User: Fold these one by one.
Assistant:
Number 1:
Amino acid sequence: MANPVVSMKFWKPGTEGPGTAISEERQSAAEASGTAVIYNPHTSLSIEQQRQRLPIFKHRNHILYLVENYQTVVIVGETGCGKSTQIPQYLAEAGWTAEGRVVGVTQPRRVAAVSVAGRVAEERGALLGHEVGYCIRFDDCTDSQATRIKFLTDGMLVREMMADPLLKKYSVLMLDEAHERTLYTDISIGLLKKIQKKRGDLRLIVASATLDAERFKEFFNQNETEDVTKDTCAILTVEGRTFPVDIFYTLSPVPDYVKATAETVMKIHQNEGDGDILAFVTGQEEVETVVSMLIEQARLLARSGMQKHLRILPMYAGLPSSEQMKVFERVSHNVRKVVVATNIAETSITINGIVFVIDCGFVKLRAYNHKTGIESLVVVPVSQASASQRAGRAGRNRSGKCYRLYTEEDYESLFPATVPEMQRSNMAPVILQLKALGIDNVLRFNFLSPPPAETMVQALELLYALGSLDDQCCLTDPLGLRMAEFPLNPMFAKMLLESGNFGCSEEILTIAAMTQIQNVFVVPPNQKAEAAREQRKFAVAEGDHLTMLNIYESFLKNSKSSQWCQQHFLNYKGLIRATTVREQLKKLLTKFKIPKKSSEGDPDPVLRCIVAGFFANAAKLHYTGSYRTLRDDYELHIHPSSVLYGEKPPEWVVFNEVIQTSKYFMRDITLVEPSWLLELAPHFYQQGVQQSWNAKRAKVS
Ligand code: CDP
Ligand code: MG
């Protein structure tokens, strides 16, 4: 199995690697807050005319024919051609939603589910939540009687299977953005293939923005038991007109792609004819750095009397949408537009007028280290498929040029395709859900791309330690079954389910809800000092979790006032979201009859309860000042956003997650007593902690 985290070989030794800046992205960044705006050039036309102008419109009848005649149809078409908004409407118009049946469309991202649903409702002149609705984690905007077209995240679809294993209400399911190969899209594909065997009438559409359709087709046509292939899957391609793109490589590796990106933009600007530039770097920080470098350069150039001006624009998921919209605006003929973007511009959005692409050769991805059990965001070289997708962005209006900031030799050594998320994720949540769906032998599940065996073993071990699996590897009743019902990582589920026993369910509910919001604080760049002072007012010595509890309770005491949030640099929208998430989690605890109790200000039960869920994420202070994970002696650091950062470091901690930039940083950290680890996770730690204790005693005596 290929290891997704390959070394950064385009790097000159001794220089700073990529992604050295601290990034504020959360693990769940892709899922949670990021959004990409949609550009519609035809807003002046009537909805009907707009719909007919989309490239997919010509294929309407053919699509309906294929869906009628094949169990599965793979549809390939470029971003913006009309897949997500039109196909479900064609199906509804053709009768697939008659007699109460529903057409379901999955999206990897929450925001996409909401925004596409909104657009389709608008096109149909319907109120969102009636005929057209969406369902994402913690937010169900559908009507069980009226909804006919339902957009949902791929994760929610898997959840729905728990209540309705054959997904009986759906006539057609479209798995959208399948090229992204997210964890839950892949799981859905495996599960839906199983469902199709029992439900010959269920139709699947796999929609993809890139040309990797054969892989899906093979998978669906393959019959594992009879070892024959059948022809139940068809492919349809919505052609987009494309022009040739010339590819250029560097002759030697570039020492710093951020700088090289800015330099290449300037070279193009000075030496090449008309046409806008799109540059790919890996994250928000890099985008901002390149943008400020370019603004500086452009100023110098303007002073030197250059005729043609530059309009430099950032583009990344966390950017406010009004700012995002600017990349679509036309510029006058003596201005060249330069868009510096993250991977968001690879398939999620399309910008017209791009003639030059600069590809730094890297991308930020989620990665899982099965040795340490740590999941983090890392910067890795792109795949060849990604590189050609990026290059293709230059050839949409006329022939273009792509500058790759790496050598041709390096290109040859890249993976052909991006490693699917399935092969670089923590499998514990997935296994728990598959087990709950009655798939006992998870190792033999029909995965589109099987995860590494070590990852599976590691996940099984963790689930066993959490008490969700028994000696026979079966889901425990009730703990395991209940854990599978939580729309959260198993560690969170365990913490919540245990909170009654510790007498602190009220506090734990708040903490779990607060960890689901992106950034608790909003810090304007020019008010860093004031913000830090305000933030310290909420900080408690025990760490981030109790600090979050503090903030939430103060928020309630101040009547959820947005003004109060502003005064204290708190994220008002985030806190409001925490209240709704808390409500939902509370419903689950009520369902499982977990007693509602508060520890009345006593921190101990709360901290112990956190340990009951997160014992596997324990670390101990090392004499070097960094931390080491208890199980694997892996080096970790306190993230600068933690209230424990810069304070006297506690000896033992547990944390919720790790993010990797220049180092591995722990996030959401709480200090603990080592004896709790032994007491609450004896199987997991017996030896490890005792050894550390002995070592400590030896030093003291
Ligand atoms: O799924 P695909 O990328 O193929 O396209 P789509 O999401 O169905 O969007 C088709 C077109 O609808 C876009 O090019 C936009 O012009 C328009 N659209 C919009 O105006 N607002 C939205 N929220 C979504 C789409
Ligand atoms: Mg789409």
Note: The chain has four domains: 10-32+242-421, 55-238, 430-484, 485-682.
Number 2:
Amino acid sequence: MDYRARFEALITAAADGIVVIDAAGLIQVYNTACEQLFGYPPRDVVGRSVKMLMSATDQEKYDAYLDSYRMTGQHGAVSPSLETVGQRKDGTTFPMHVSLGEGQSPDGNILVAIIRDITERQNAQRQTQELQHELLHVSRLSAMSEMSSALAHEVNQPLAAITNYLRAAQRTAVNINDPAIVKVREILEKTLAQTARAGQVIRRLRDFIEKGETNRVIENLNSVIDEAMGLALIGAGDTGVRPQMEFHPRAPNVLIDKIQIQQVVLNLVRNSIEAMQETETRDLTVRTMIEGDFAQVTVMDTGPGLHPDVAGRLFQPFTTTKGAGMGIGLSISKRIIESHGGRMWATPNLEAGVSFHFNIPLSV
Ligand code: ADP
């Protein structure tokens, strides 16, 4: 096989699209993979401007680049790799990654472009971002409902006391016909009505928060946890944590609101990662198990363990040892698990650190 035949076989067999253009931007080589990417057969493109493979915006940029190349004879800032948009024969576009290399041929300068369709990668990225966004949203929403619920609870007590005092004042002023006292009775009556209204508003708020909106579907707990771990570990690269997942081989099926359960896992994993910043060994183990009629999840770390100040009231709102902590992550998590018919608890580890566990009834 001569050199040229070998070269052609290589180009044809390549999984990535390969386009070679000459100094004038005319297509010289267009391989089989390109046919699949762009939808044109080679005879429609070879000898024509490479612009036909670009989206409208890229065509403009390319024109500007060619002008500058003609004036200076320099390729200038041709970046060796870029993400851009390709255009198919039918006019549709797709995101592509292009690696560029300059070279020489007997006829002058050439530019070799290796092209890969990155639609799937971008979709996966978008899905991850959407999920993260949704989790953040749920977490903000849960924080808000937790606070409103605590607030409603706190405000209810003084409201009940106000109502009692008002009734007592009414009783004291009853049967006194002094015009000023009659006026006071009227005012007391109106105040009572308004206090009752405030109580209703708070009751409605609590009902709303407690019922909440959930979206329960039968899910495979292993994949739900796996996905949540992926998200929790994004950005945990430089924390020195060594994650390990031990999944029960009989992937447990559970009826859950996936986003809420992932929120719980995210809270537990983030707490563990944060706690382990204080210790030398940073092993994080996430395990799924089946215990009787329940699927159980354990998040175990090798951190410093629970601070004695918080150990007894870990799941109460506003319990925190962190300067910037709100102390509501665990109370929200426990509520989510309980609303799924499960339990949440923590145990100290034998060697070091703490394990958080929760369980959810298995779905049959
Ligand atoms: P926050 O993280 O805002 O403090 P949380 O409710 O998530 O709120 O946690 C409450 C407290 O529980 C933390 O401040 C911390 O003291 C303790 N805690 C939670 N997880 C761990 C852990 N893995 N190791 C040690 N302490 C923990």
Note: Residues 267, 271-272, 275, 301, 303, 306-307, 310, 314, 319-322, 325-330, 354 surround adenosine-5'-diphosphate (CB under 6 Å).
